[in-house]
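Q: How would the structure tokens look for this protein?
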Amino acid sequence: MLQEREKPLLEVNDVSQRYRTGSGEEGPPVLDHVSLKLTSGEIVGLLGRSGCGKSTLLRIVAGLSSPAEGTVTYDGQPVSGPVDGLAMVFQSFALFPWLSVLANVEIGLRARKVPEAEARKRALAAIDLIGLDGFESAFPKELSGGMRQRVGFARALVINPKILLMDEPFSALDVLTAETLRSDLLDLWVEGRMPIKSILMVTHNIEEAVLMCDRIIVLSSNPGRIAAEIKVTLQHPRNRLDPEFRQLVDKIYALMTKRAVEAAPRDGAFPGLGLGMALPQLSTNTIAGMIEEIHAPPYNGRASLPDLADSLTMEIDDLFPVAETLQLLRFAEIADGRISLTAAGTKFADLETDARKKLFGDHLLAYIPLAARIKMVLDERPTHSARATRFLEELEDFMSGDYADRTLRSVVNWGRYGELFAYDESSETLSLENPG
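A: Here is the predicted structure in token form.
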């Protein structure tokens, strides 16, 4: 058993990936020289924020796309397309709506030319294993989200794969349904009732990774690189309230925010050329609401990010962009998995609406180069106006069209809140709020 565990089932060697832009030019790297191994008897999680390349890496492992560089080997053989020993469960269920549950589960076996009687027997066994006995003749529209995902699991397991690949399989479900399905899957794994040797799963949920995985591979973003590999030695079933569990969650939060702290610009200095900063699309209500939450009891100006995520029921993909924007605007500082309001952040929380807007506008001009750029152009032009496309084209020299559009929309909305400039949606024109 020890020898089997030491021999990798799957090896990812120095994999890089990049995509071409709509104009055909080579875009920035999505994955940058990623290497990992998967052995028998373990659940490995790929943890990271949206855009870090987790799902891209999983698709490369599954043979659904090819890397720009590097190789993937399964059971000692190169992966150059879909492989019989790998099965995948998708976030979106991916069921055929015109087929019954039984037919959906059977379809992979039929594609492999498995005899009808054997396919039916194996499909019924998989449906029973995953807890859908009695729903064989139902159609997807008759099922809840959790039941549809169970069909997805049954369809993956029926082909008896060695490795189960899971791309955020619980993220489309409500909290209680996700918890039930996650627990049932773990029970089957721990009891050895599933016909698989290993699981590789993608998640952006830190607690989910600690709850399920034996190893957690943390990916950084832009481009996706392995930032850390963390072993989880807690015994199943794991208790979220266990001090060791909470310490591990806190450790990962600290690790994932460390890079944001290191990348934060010092006063007067911005990374790259300044305009090249891609910004999240956040409303000023969200930004102000986060400041108010941290300012109020029980946090009183300083909060643990895991506690804040729990109290606001926010995933890291929702929480981190807000926290990092507060840091960028100098309303907060992030360190060791904690966020603390600066003097300016505390002042903002205590001010009335008009004074808040003035303070926000001042910080926007001081710390967001694009906002300062827009204001300068509008000040210098006799008409005190400019088309938004003028700034969008400038941003596209630094980032993809999607990132450029999102960044410009954010700065325009923030600038309007700070009363730095106005924007006419119909003509897509920016102008000074008070040109006189």
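Residues 2-254 form a domain with the Rossmann fold fold (CATH 3.40.50.300).

Residues 59 and 92 are 15 Å apart (CA to CA).

Upvote if useful.
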